[in-house]
Amino acid sequence: MAEPGLIDEYCAVLRGALPAALAEEVGDGLVEAYEACLRRGMAQPEAAQAAVAEFGAPEAVVAEFRRISPARRAAATFLGTGPMVAACWAALLISGKAWDWPVPFIARVLVGGLLLASIAGLITATRTKCYRTIRRSGVSSCLGLATVDTSMIMAAILVSPGPAWLAVAAIAVSAARITGVARSLRPMLA
Description:
The protein is mostly helical. The chain is built from eight helices and no strands. Helix 5 (70-95) packs antiparallel against helix 8. The longest helix is centred in the C-terminal third of the chain and has 29 residues, at 131-159.
C-alpha cells in the first residue's frame, strides 16, 4: 500500500530533521489525522493525501519548528543585547586600565576565546537550517556567555580599580544576562 508509505515518508523527513520527541509528536498527529479520514469513509489513498495536505509539506513543518526554536530566539536576543553588555565592560576595562590588572595572561586568552566561540555559536544558531544544530549551538553558546559573564564579574569584584559606578553597571548587565541564560535554558533543553 502506497498510502501508509506516504505517511511513513513524511515521518522519515521529520525524524531526519527534528529531535525524536518532536518528530514523534508530529508523526502521531499525522497518523491520527489519517485515521480520522479513514473513519469518515475515505479510501486509504485519499485519506493519506488529505492528512498530508492538512499538515502541509514536511519541509514547511520543519522550517516552522526552526523558526520558533527557543534556542534561535535566545540566540537572537543575546546577539541583540551583546553590544550593550560589551560597551559596559569596555568602559570599565578601559577606565580601570585592565591591562594592568593582576589577571594571568592565560585567563585573559581563555575568557576572550570563550567569548568569541560563544558569539560564533549564537550566530550559527540564528542562521543555520538544522534544528539540532540550532539547539546545540544555542545551548553551548548560552553556557559560554554565562561563564564569561561570571568570570568578568569575579574579576571586577576582585581586582577592578575602575570607577565603582562603572563596575556596578557592568556587573548588573552581566548578572541580567546570566539570569536570561538561566531562563532560556529550560525551554531549550525541554
